[in-house]
Specification:
The protein has helices spanning about 20-40, 40-60, 80-110, 110-115, 120-150, 160-180, 190-205, 210-220, 220-230, 230-240, 250-270. It is mainly α and about 280 residues long. Helix 5 crosses helix 6. The chain starts with 17 loop residues before the first helix and ends in a 16-residue tail after the last helix.
């Protein structure tokens, strides 16, 4: 007589362990870091733009655009000292848009095409991608600060540490904005035009190159537009943090925009609720 033992069904898995989440985060960050190391021209191009502004344009505008004593500065400063925080934010802005370009490629032909259909929460995958891009942008900013030090742009020694949280938050906001924009781009050929439509208005209509009180003297309505620009508050958050101070308004705006952009990107990358409908058989 044969006795058949019936085993109870294994309980359904309710979720992932903390170790599995950490493994996913480590893998995505590591891959982004390796891509950054292998693409040396990306590192060089990220530094060329701000250095051109710092070494060439700042030298020409120094006598024309003198800066008065405005917070967080406690004395008169040179023009190149004023624009340094804006150039730091510009590095993060371009890096966020470049990360979005990689999202468009990876979503269609790369590893994100596989990751986005994995059992892991899609929002967590996007956050890991965003965090990896932010880490790369922070490294680029510190490389810029190291070069700017030889140009007599020397914030307080503690400023190199206090600016780190501001750089992380600003990088998250700009990266989330780029991710939200990339959700509506289906072809790489359309990316350049869309990015130019976003990057240059955000950069020039901000306090990166000139204080808002000078903008208001020339055009009050343009000054209001600059104040409503999230990039302006990213610049001011970095500017104050570089001198060990905190701009609470900018912190609130950058933090709020980060949450809004990230939530919008998660919804947009959800094929069931996305803002942009995919074609038949298309994938997010």
């Amino acid at each position: 007589m044969t006795v058949t033992t019936v085993h109870p069904p294994a309980p359904a898995r309710s979720g992932f362990t903390a170790g599995e989440y950490i493994t996913c985060l480590t893998g995505i960050v590591w891959r982004e870091g390796l891509r950054f190391l292998h693409q040396r021209e990306r590192f060089v191009s990220a530094l060329v733009r701000p250095l051109v502004w710092l070494f060439i344009f700042a030298a020409g505008f120094r006598q024309v655009l003198g800066i008065s004593i405005i917070p967080p500065y406690e004395t008169y400063i040179l023009y190149e000292v004023y624009i340094a925080p804006g150039l730091m934010a510009m590095i993060q802005l371009f890096n966020g848009m470049q990360s979005s370009l990689s999202m468009v490629y990876d979503r269609e032909m790369g590893n994100m095409r596989t990751l986005l259909v994995s059992p892991l929460p899609r929002g967590y995958l996007l956050f890991c991608k965003l965090l990896a891009g932010t880490a790369v942008s922070v490294l680029q900013v510190y490389a810029f600060l190291a070069i700017a030090w030889f140009w007599d742009i020397t914030p307080p020694p503690m400023g190199y540490l206090t600016v780190l949280p501001a750089l992380i938050l600003a990088g998250l906001m700009l990266g989330a904005l780029g991710m939200l924009i990339s959700s509506g781009i289906k072809q790489l050929e359309n990316f350049a035009g869309v990015m130019n439509f976003v990057i240059f208005p955000m950069f020039f209509a901000s306090s990166a190159l000139y204080p808002l009180w000078r903008v208001e003297e020339g055009s009050p309505w343009l000054a209001y537009l600059c104040e409503a620009n999230p990039f302006t508050h990213a610049v001011e958050l970095i500017r104050f943090a570089l001198y060990g101070k905190l701009n609470w308004v900018s912190l609130a705006v950058v933090g709020g925009c980060t949450a809004v952009f990230m939530i919008g990107a998660i919804l947009a990358y959800d094929p069931s609720r996305g803002f942009v409908r995919r074609g038949p058989g298309g994938e997010a």
